[in-house]
Design brief:
With 692 residues, the protein is of the alpha+beta class. It contains 24 helices and 21 strands. The strands form four sheets. A six-stranded antiparallel β-sheet has the order 18-17-16-21-20-19, with helices on both faces. Strands 2-1-5-4-3 form a five-stranded antiparallel β-sheet, sandwiched between helices. Strand 1 and strand 2 form a beta hairpin. Helix 2 crosses helix 3 and helix 13 packs antiparallel against helix 14. The longest helix has 58 residues.
Amino acid sequence: MPEPSLTARRFGARLRYLRTLRNMTQAELADKVGLSLRQISRIEQGSSSPSFAVLEKFGQVLDVSMVSLFLFPDQDSPGRSPASQKIPFMEEDRPWVMDIRTPARIGVWSLEVGSGKTRWSASVFELLGYPPFSVKPTLKRFLKHVRPDQCDEARIFFEEAGQGRGRHILVQVDTKSLGPRTVSIHVDKGRVEKGLEEKNAMRSETGREMLLILQDVTDVTAMAGTLMQNQQELEEHVRVRNKDLALALDNYKRETEEKAKAEYHQRIWGLMVRNSQDAQAFVDHSGTIVVVNEAYEQLVGVSADELHGTCYADFLRQFWGDEFFEKEIRLHLDRALLRGAKAQREGWVDYGRGPRFVKRTYVPCRRDRDIVGVVVTIHDVTDVMTIQEQLRHTEAALRAKIQELDCFFSISQDLLAIKHKNGSILRLSPAWEHLLGYPRSELEGYKYLRFIHPADQTDSVATFEKLATAKYVRSFINRYCARDGGYRTIEWNLQVMGDLVYAVGRDVTVRKQDEDALQQRDLLLELAATTALKLLRSSSPERKLPDILAQLGLRTNTDRVYIFKNHQDEPTGKLLSSQILEWSRSGVTPQIDNPMLQNVPLCDLTPRWVREMNAGNSIMGFVQDFSEQEKLILEAQEIQSLLVVPIQVEDRFWGFLGFDSVRTPRIWSAAEESVLRIVAAAIGAAMPRNIC
């Protein structure tokens, strides 16, 4: 019988290994792929080779790819089986040394998930420097060979591999024979034993196995590093050469551009001089006039033919004289022609037709950094200077008018303003600062609506638009916001002139407040009289009280109005007081159901109130100014300020009428207090006949 080929033997060993991993007998495998037990035995012994159709069935049954069937991790020598190999040992029983001439490059590690059981192929033992199957293949033993700084990373990889999440890792291991080696480990997902439950129903989920492929990539890694280093050196060499070439190209391009620019300048100097509207002349480095334009001929009254080829300094001495040349021209001409610096001079000069204001400019011309000449430009700005002089006189006259207007603005006690038709404030008198507290710089330039009370803005816009046809408006009133947050009521007279609106305003805040106070007092007096008549004429005044409290709250613009009635505690004889009626504004929390306001011991909690109201006095002010004990009671009701008026019934302290301000603190006027006292007296007068 012919000797089995090396490939057939390796394939048979690989098939037997994969079958064993799946706990499958030869008979079971033969049954699944449709072969006889003898054929399976011959294939595993290497004496028979399967067809491609059979290979495909092997892959399906063992749940592996066809390529994986030919993944031979063990490098066997021809003519010898793994079982017949002899592992040489030294006499001193030193660690086994693998023959480095045939190193194992690929090994297989079978990891049983959950139980932690592992199996190594012979190549894994040889890779680590152990005789095949001479030691127990454990994760702990493998980690001892891993470089310390990679142990944690490797441990995590194996844990994730057991959970089906790991992919690949590259670790450095110290072998017993080959020294430090680089090992690539990757998970072969196709090796997960999915058919175990079908085979062995008694086996738990922890029996799943994961196949890890280990490959020694030390030489490949070193070769890749060498190739990368060589590539980097080559790239660096190319970059340096490209940089040198680019620098040389830039230098050549710059020299070419400079040369072209110099030639271009040589052509345009003459064109520039001839086409300039100012009087210009080009003088070369020797001081000779080369080109003059028509404007220069007209200015000096000498033709171009006479000037060409003439020494510029000699011509100027003849035209102006030595003194003028030395004082006004020579210094600037030498600065441009000899030192290459631009020079300029301006002033009044008489060219024979009256004085003219001119600006003389001397601009050096260069070629390859050499001064080749000077362009002399004489710019006549006499007309401009004349206009500027006229503007100065006009400005002086306008400044005088402005000073007169400033004087008028500064002494006026009324508010003076100049606005544009678009609403922008152009100018204000100092009285604005005294009245509103803003610096004028914060007011001027802004739209006037920014400072007007929101409720007055609509009327203000309508009045301002009315000026487009009416031309003037008299006695218009609105409110302006001051810097302190308050508002000032101002009465305006407005008049339009062109695009400007002139406004004169007078502060009528006090007058308006007095008018509002008188109007409020009259309304409150009317309310007090009506309330007193209702109570005194009614047979059941207690039924009128809720409506009276509502009218008082709305008319006084307060948040809560209430009545407390006094009574004595029978066991102790102490004076107690309870809230019996209340009106509250929408959005303000009512207190009528507050148990803390029933049977209140006034003498214990608010003795000051008892003393004052027994004497017929009111309690009024900001809560923050009250005693700590009083503040504790009132702040719990969100009260910021209040007014309490005593109710006297037959000369005794029967109770009190209270007014709370919750939204904002306020102070009630003397007129309001007097009117409320009248209401309290009317309530007290009605009580004895009914509910006293």
